[in-house]
């Protein structure tokens, strides 16, 4: 048994494909196949079931994979610690974020890559609950999420570092009749069409709003920021978002759209912050990204 064999089975289990794993690891597919076969013979159990569609762990393989993930994680931490003490940053960071924060994170990652060209970043855009699930399962190393104050169980097996506590607000384009307002009532909001991000904190808002005042009129839901912005600029609809997200794009506020308070609506505070596995140390790369993001957004906190 060797480190390469453990790294191979962890990657194959992650992508469910020998060919995809070979591309990601920059080794031949036959080398991965031979390594897995050799490890299976050594351990006396079958680790994977292979088919044309996918390669998935056997029940016995899943138990071995859990240990292999721990070993490869520790090896990665040892290497990163050594490189950090040498004054360089290397390694891979798998980063997940809710859609509204992708633009700000791209700027941070670009800065990181410029200063440390040997760092490799993988970014994915998902809802907060999906990001937390992926961090918990080991699919992601670090996540930027929105956490409702009334759902602490979402953080099971995770550590959470809060960046900002805020609330949801209404954004209306300058063509909207609401643009000159400072606030809107729930009844008035129900008369408007809404375009919404497909994110959990928006779903939580819709849940609470519907329970108090009835369902709003939703034109569409999307992760496409351009589609939402177009609907706002044309005066077709309004949207709901976290004040933290809107403030990061303050150059558009006043010029393109207005932010309105939602009167007479009881909402749970939402916390923006980072999550990572509770049993895992933060890598130097993860710490850099967290500190750099805090620096870039400090004016809005």
TrEMBL record:
SUPFAM superfamilies: Periplasmic binding protein-like II, Winged helix' DNA-binding domain. Gene3D superfamilies: 3.40.190.290, Winged helix-like DNA-binding domain superfamily/Winged helix DNA-binding domain. Residues 1-58 form the HTH lysR-type domain. InterPro entries: HTH-type_LysR_regulators, LysR_HTH_N, LysR_subst-bd, WH-like_DNA-bd_sf, WH_DNA-bd_sf. Keywords: DNA-binding, Transcription, Transcription regulation. CDD domains: PBP2_LTTR_substrate. This is LysR family transcriptional regulator. It comes from Paenibacillus hemerocallicola.
